[in-house]
Specification:
It is elongated, with a radius of gyration of 21 Å. The protein has about 190 residues and is mainly α. The protein has a domain of about 100 residues: Rna Polymerase Sigma Factor, Chain: A (Orthogonal Bundle), CATH 1.10.1740.
């Protein structure tokens, strides 16, 4: 809920030409657009142009009273930037094979829907993980986020050997799945 409020404040700030809001949006999202462009036959200058055009698009939308951003700012900017970059590559005749697997016909609305669904699922997973308690939360974060091996987990959490740590991780994962799907199925 807190991140949604922050995002809403950034959109309001953008619509009101608040330099802090614009700077925050820029800092949080430029690298993502830059990676998209650089990894797909573009330059740093291309990335700056595409990001500026994407930000202008968001600004124009945010300036409309009826506009409601129903996804994260990063999702919106990425979708717009991706469309703009694909269009630019096609215009320049640089549409490369690595981009061929991207769906040309998917509308921006469809992209946003997919990202919204993914964001929603991540939020449910985060709530499920936070509701687990210790040591399960730390074990799963250690293994999946910090990429710790079983021997390290065993030492970290005081298990006698790697097999015991593996069994505990498995039990925690089953518990996390139950929590996730319980929250997912009731639509929270």
């Amino acid at each position: 809920m807190k991140s949604e409020l922050i995002e809403q404040n950034l959109i309001i700030g953008l619509a009101n030409n608040d330099s802090k809001a614009i700077e925050t949006i820029y800092k949080q999202n430029f690298n993502m657009v830059q990676s998209l462009v650089l990894n797909n036959n573009g330059s740093y200058d291309d990335a700056r142009d595409i990001f500026q055009e994407s930000l202008i698009t968001l600004y124009e939308k945010a300036s409309q009273e009826s506009f409601v951003l129903s996804c994260k700012i990063s999702t919106y900017l990425y979708s717009v930037a991706r469309r703009l970059w694909l269009k630019r590559l096609q215009q320049l005749g640089k549409y490369v094979n690595s981009m061929d697997n991207l769906e040309e016909t998917v509308s921006l609305g469809d992209d946003i829907e997919i990202h919204q669904k993914r964001d929603h699922d991540y939020e449910i997973m985060e709530r499920a993980l936070n509701s687990m308690g210790e040591p399960c939360k730390s074990i799963l974060e250690g293994f999946y986020v910090k990429k710790m091996d079983m021997q390290t987990l065993a030492q970290e959490f005081g298990y006698t050997n790697a097999d015991n740590a593996k069994n505990q991780k498995y039990k925690c994962l089953i518990r996390l799945k139950k929590l996730f799907f319980t929250q997912y199925n009731i639509g929270e």
